[in-house]
Automatic annotation (TrEMBL), chain A:
Species whose genome carries this gene: Natronospirillum operosum
Protein name: Carbohydrate ABC transporter substrate-binding protein
InterPro entries to which the protein is assigned, alphabetical: Bact_solute-bd_prot1, SBP
Signal peptide residue numbers: 1-23
Family: Belongs to the bacterial solute-binding protein 1 family.
From TrEMBL, chain B:
Residues annotated as transmembrane: 30-49, 92-113, 125-146, 172-197, 228-248, 280-305
GO biological processes: transmembrane transport
Localization terms from the record: Cell membrane
Keywords of the record: Cell membrane, Membrane, Transmembrane, Transmembrane helix, Transport
Cellular component aspect of the GO annotation: plasma membrane
Name this protein carries in UniProt: Sugar ABC transporter permease
Coiled coil: none
Predominant location: membrane
Membrane topology qualifier: Multi-pass membrane protein
Pfam families listed in its UniProt record: BPD_transp_1 (PF00528)
Source species taxonomy: Bacteria, Pseudomonadati, Pseudomonadota, Gammaproteobacteria, Oceanospirillales
InterPro entries assigned to the protein according to its UniProt record, in alphabetical order: MetI-like, MetI-like_sf, UgpAE/MalFG_permease
Family statement drawn from the similarity comment of this UniProt entry: Belongs to the binding-protein-dependent transport system permease family.
Residue ranges occupied by any ABC transmembrane type-1 domain in the UniProt entry: 87-302
């Protein structure tokens, strides 16, 4: 009689064991993004979190929607007070829409401030309001020039001799004279080319006091320089398809249509995914300078991961976000997995970052040495409540008329845009 | 005799025993209201409530957790050049789609309805298929066909017949062409079906009588067929006008964030741009209310002109 009882008892215990493990049920966290790569990155972090924290497992649902849809749906969910995810990606140009009213996002100060010294702080300022940090970026977004070595060689230009934008324009003449390619393309439906070039000179759309500075002399001269390259010298053209993310552009660039392109470092992945024929042909270099001693880069673009106040467990979400994006390991993975220039500058010269990977193989060695070289020359941009509107005005009208059609001078186009934005500020 | 008495007594008992719910449901006064109540409820919940909210919101500035009244400020701001540009684009689009989406389907329906046309069932199905396609898929394909590249299909056709390639998505007239072409491609088949159904109602006796009186094909069409299908034409024109003013998708799939020089901006696109992309829901609501008024007035004028309000003789 004793034996069966004992067997029964041990069976009961065995049944109970998995039950105790089940008690640690994973907390569900939802994450919205517009980049498949970001979703993969977070899913990877989820696995690592669960390994490191078996007592507090999470179950991450990463959902990928198109860019516009993520931002619209999130805004409406936050406005209406329900339906928002725990974590979400917000692109920097959109962030100010979410920082109005009673900010519906969770301040991240207690996880950000302890590590801020290790970080490129300007990448946190763009997601901050009234001393609160609301977003953690994926990258610094240091702008660089990607040169097609094959075309430059055919044109007889040594890319290391290009020091200033004047040299760059002169090299453009050589490229168009000796090859079928143009020197470069400028975006006409997107703001990057223009914004990088003005930010590099310390100028911006809004100044530090929040006033419209779009029509200042630096910006006018810069846009005129771009317009002249396209319409007067024929050394550049408006990017096919309107921007550097369109199918038309990928095809054009892949077939050697342009000798160079100016984009942030995070653009490297686009070459690997969309322009495979350029493997081992592209050289990364700092941007030409505008003046002697001027900056050779600008921090551009960016996507901040935020936590919404609708999250059921904001503390857990916050810790997970810090684990996924602020730690040393996380920042190494931002480079090895996504090919981004991580926000934690301390890792830039680490062994892990310098180790061989797909990006070094596609481009060349020493990419991070360039970043180390220009680390103090990466000015950020000013984000204003009306940045989404300003961006829309510039993309819709200014760049279209000044760069694509060329039927307005830089001054006319910028004055009109600045007036339109000032009207909105009233 | 006994049996009839028994039956009538039984009937009376049965009537007494009917529950109040039963008599309520079978009441001649209540039943009609009961039957239309789902419709009335859905109108109240899905149309009237949002309509009321939109009117209220159009006088507000709406931010998360903060809503305050701003009086007529939103309406004052609507009267700006960009709104008028959107209205102009939309109006051109409405006129073009109304013409194309009545004339073309009518012609095709007449051809398909003709006794000499062969394979008409196949063509009916083929013309209808685009209506089943998702506009996003169609938009992506249109975008590639009319891409900014010499290799894009449309530009290859142009070079083949001796013209130079076009930047389809960057010129005002080509942009309008793309939007109208997409709408026509999508809705042609549906309208053909409407017209085919209408053509079945044309009285054959009248047609025969007219031909015996010596009317030629054109006269028969004008004096017999056209009056018979007029209600359908009025219906389709009304629907096309309303759909035209509400157009959003065609523009959205061709230019996702914004169209260069506002060439693809429609009124609903403007609502989306201001209300959602620029986070000004109150302003977006004001534009929406104005659009509602415009559609209402235009539809009324159109229905009045086509005689829809006249009593039938």
């Amino acid at each position: 009689m004793k034996k069966p009882l004992w067997t029964l008892g041990s069976c009961a215990m065995m049944l109970a064991l998995p039950h105790t493990a089940m008690a640690q049920q994973a907390t569900e966290l939802t994450f919205w993004t517009f980049q498949q790569a970001h979703a993969t990155f977070f899913e990877d972090a989820e696995a690592q979190w669960n390994e490191a924290n078996p007592d507090r497992p999470i179950d991450l649902n990463a959902e990928v929607y198109p860019y516009d849809q993520v931002h619209s749906n999130l805004l409406l969910a936050l406005q209406s007070g329900r339906g928002a995810p725990d974590l979400a990606d917000i692109e920097v140009r959109q962030i100010s829409n979410y920082l109005q009213g009673d900010v519906p996002l969770v301040p991240l100060n207690d996880v950000v401030e302890p590590v801020l010294d290790e970080m490129v702080t300007s990448r946190f300022d763009i997601y901050a309001k009234d001393g609160n940090y609301y977003g953690v970026d994926y990258h610094v977004g240091a702008s660089v020039m990607y040169y097609n070595q094959e075309i430059m060689d055919a044109a007889g230009v040594n890319i290391d001799d290009i020091e200033t934008w004047e040299d760059y324009a002169a090299a453009g003449e050589q490229v168009t004279a000796n090859t079928d390619a143009v020197m470069t393309t400028f975006e006409s439906d997107d703001i990057f080319s223009f914004w990088i070039m003005i930010a590099q000179q310390g100028s911006d759309i809004f100044d530090a006091d929040g006033q419209v500075s779009l029509d200042n002399q630096t910006n006018i001269d810069t846009l005129q320089f771009m317009q002249d390259m396209i319409h007067e010298h024929g050394t550049a053209r408006a990017a096919p398809g309107g921007g550097h993310h369109s199918e038309e552009y990928f095809g054009f660039m892949n077939n050697g249509g342009a000798a160079s392109v100016m984009m942030p470092m995070w653009y490297m992945g686009r070459f690997i995914d969309n322009m495979p024929d350029l493997e081992n042909k592209m050289q990364v270099r700092p941007l030409p300078r505008w003046t002697e001693g001027g900056d050779r880069s600008a921090g551009m673009g960016g996507t901040g991961t935020v936590i919404t106040r609708q999250s059921a467990d904001t503390e857990l979400a916050k810790e997970f976000l810090a684990f996924a994006k602020l730690t040393r390991d996380a920042n190494i993975r931002l480079w090895t997995v996504l090919g981004f220039d991580p926000i934690r500058h301390e890792v830039w010269d680490s062994e892990e970052v310098q180790a061989d990977n797909a990006y070094y193989q596609f481009f060349h060695e020493g990419i991070f040495n360039i970043l180390l070289d220009i680390r103090d020359e990466i000015p950020g941009v000013n984000i204003h409540e009306l940045t989404p509107t300003a961006q829309q005005v510039i993309e819709t009208n200014t760049l279209h008329t000044a760069l694509r059609t060329g039927n307005r001078t830089a001054e006319q186009a910028l004055t009109q845009a600045a007036d339109e934005i000032r009207m909105r500020m009233r | 005799m006994q049996l009839t008495q028994f039956l009538s007594r039984r009937r009376a008992q049965k009537a007494e025993s009917r529950s109040p719910l039963f008599s309520f449901l079978y009441s001649r006064k209540i039943a009609p209201y009961l039957f239309v109540s789902p419709f009335i409820l859905s109108v109240l919940v899905l149309y009237l409530y949002p309509f009321y909210s939109a009117i209220q919101m159009s006088f507000q500035r709406v931010l998360p957790g903060q809503v305050f009244y701003v009086g007529l400020e939103n309406y004052e701001r609507v009267m700006n050049p960009i709104f008028f540009r959107a209205l102009q684009n939309t109006s051109i689009y409405v006129v073009l789609t109304v013409i194309l989406l009545t004339v073309l389907p009518l012609m095709l329906a007449l051809i398909l309805n003709h006794r000499l046309t062969r394979w008409s069932n196949f063509f009916r199905a083929a013309i209808f298929i685009p209506a089943l396609t998702s506009v996003v898929v169609a938009g992506t394909i249109f975008r590639l066909i009319f891409g900014e590249s010499d290799q894009a299909l449309a530009n290859q056709v142009l070079s083949f017949i001796g013209f130079s390639p076009l930047d389809w998505r960057y010129e005002a007239w080509t942009a309008m062409f793309l939007m109208v072409a997409m709408a026509t491609w999508r809705w042609l088949g549906v309208n053909v079906i409407y017209f085919l159904a209408a053509l079945q109602t044309v009285n054959n006796d009248l047609t025969e009588a007219a031909s015996m009186d010596g009317a030629n094909a054109l006269q028969r069409f004008r004096h017999v067929t056209l009056p018979a299908i007029k209600p359908i034409i009025v219906f389709l024109v009304t629907i096309t006008i309303i759909n035209g003013f509400r157009m959003f998708e065609e523009s959205y799939v061709l230019w996702e964030s914004s169209s260069p020089g506002y060439i693809g901006l429609t009124v609903v696109r403007y609502i989306y741009r201001e209300g959602i992309q620029n986070n000004a829901l109150g302003f977006g609501a004001a534009v929406g209310i104005i659009l509602l008024a415009i559609i209402f007035v235009v539809s009324m004028i159109q229905l009045y002109l086509t005689g829809a309000f006249k009593k039938e003789h």
